[in-house]
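SEVERITY: medium
COMPONENT: batch folding queue
REPORTER: lab tech (J.R.)

DESCRIPTION
The queue accepted two submissions in a row. Attaching both inputs and their returned structure tokens so the on-call engineer can compare them side by side.

ATTACHMENT 1
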Amino acid sequence: MRRKVKNRNMVGPDFVYNSQKLEKFINYIMWSGKKETARKVMYAAFDVIKEKTSNPNPLEIFDLAMRNAGPSTEVRSKRIGGANYQVPIEVRAERKMALAMRWIRDAARNTKGKPMYLKLADELIAASKNEGSAIKKKEDTHKMAEANKAFAHLAW
């Protein structure tokens, strides 16, 4: 069994919205260490969210999108007696947030034909309305866990 992680690096809050969660997401968007570029993309996406929605605070849309995109259960592979079983387990809060951020980022990156800030804004708005690719990924994960509920007694 793995040891508990003792010294996890905590990111500081971002400059504009004073949110640690947003700064963590900016780190997820960042490519090749270009953090300033990732910040520009994120803040431009927030400007688009302000325009497209009636909400003047895009951080609320962002938080709602993260809550909606995070899965509550997932499957883990467990080997018992030469056979591999997909065992459904609860998802910890940290992992739920990490998966939500990754799925929203990947959904935005896989959309073609628009600048990243527009794709990211569209995906965040869609996730806040329980729509979009990230939400589909979450539903697929839940379906997989539901289908393998018979093996829940094998959970460790």
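ATTACHMENT 2
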Amino acid sequence: MQASRPTRLGILLSGRGSNFLAIADSIRTGKLPGVEIAIVISNVADAPGIAAAAKLGFATALQISKGRSREAHDADVAALLLRHRVDLVCLAGYMRLLSPQFIAAFPQRILNIHPSLLPAFPGLDAQQQAFDYGVKVAGCTVHFVDEELDHGVIILQRSVPVLDGDDAHTLSARILSEEHIAYSQAIARLVSGEYQIRGRQYLKKDS
């Protein structure tokens, strides 16, 4: 990340944007110093998250993905992010797989959050998968994005106990609360620059 100026985030979302709002709140309250949101982009016109971003005064853009090839859509999104001098791309409920060309444009600079303790339960409906499997501990994972689904290097995880009275809905709500904490923690770790990647390991530089 760039130490001489604020680290500029590009937020990609497709839905309500609750993780985006949690990140914005962490910046506003000083929990993420030296970080700013450069632009919020949605691929869905009526996504509540893009409306919330506009209301808060952030730069926003719509890049509708329906009916377009992944490569063409991603090229337009990448161009927007580069135009806004984005340092770190944060997927916040962005319901699309990214093209290899997009990932190559932002190497080790794309983050995603997933509602399971990866590598367990990748893909859609991870909370329901965990509940159906009968696990006793669930949680969330913030990881770098690579060309495989929910596969990149793990930055941090937060765990959530599965209670006897839980269903997939109550479990999802508790995991989401931890997501809102975990994403800002992960961004802070990356902005510090005090880390290295060794194989699949995210390590502090003094490790």
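NOTES FROM REPORTER
The longest strand covers residues 35-42.
No errors were logged for either attachment.
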